Amino acid sequence: MATWAYPPLRDQSTREADIALARELEWLLHSLQESLVSLKEGLQECAALLAPQEPGSTLVLSSLRSENVKGFVTRVGTQVVKGDIQLRLSSLPPPRGAPSTRLSLSQSPDAPSLVLPQLVSVRNLVNQSLDIVDVSAWTGDPLNATFIFSQLHLLHETIREARQMLKGESDDVRGNWWETSATENMFDPPLPPHLSFHLSIADSALVLLLRTLESNNQTATPTAFATDISLTGFSLRDRLFGTRTRAHDETNDVFKWYGEEVHVKEKVRVESQDPSLMAVMAKLTALEHEVMRWVAALRVLMGSDDTESES
């Protein structure tokens, strides 16, 4: 004789599990609305640190173990508004009667601004993140799991992109120096010819790269006293003292600089940690991890099939 249970125990337990899961999902959606408030406060703090507030951040930009570069710049918001740097480079003779070459940002109202594109992008991405939070809190159904999941996924991607901009790990983020270097009329007096002045952000630090350039089309006429006379493919210096090591990592590269092919004679890098940008990086990293945790929790409660297309 067969024994039947009604309703079937398996179906009943499945329904109870689904009900419990739905309750957990509803609880999570309610709690996320409260969490979005603190998240917005964190993003607003980032926006305030990136805002143009006087007196700004004055940062020392000097080489550590040499007199090659000595000076400072002042950043206000996304722009460098002041700068005074002294250069002593072997490939850049100073003006007659001066011990070094001085680079000073022009204070003329007609001079173009020295803008840091990475910080412009970070500021815009933070503002976009604030808009996403507002949409999540005030638009649509806050208990619609699919809607909230898509908003949080977008928020996570936007915050991550902002953090990567501050990280500045690639040339695509920092900008190619031969295309985005400061123009000569940003300085008073103007920059010396064939000198590249490039500012970028890397690991929340302001990085200055100076390059002295030489046209790739110049052909020097050998003299009896030239040190680079070569009849066999090796210069006289190399034959006497051995092959010289590469002066920098761009020694053999050719670049297009203002329509002219050039190579880099000398390259100097200095950097200065920016406390405000370090604070922004720390906050963005924490916010990214928090949003990622929310996305993961929603993915579990909604089921992988429901969120596969969004992840």
From TrEMBL:
Cellular component (GO) terms are: RAVE complex
Which organism was this protein described from? Answer: Penicillium alfredii
- One short Pfam name that applies is Rogdi_lz
Q: What is this protein called?
A: RAVE subunit 2/Rogdi
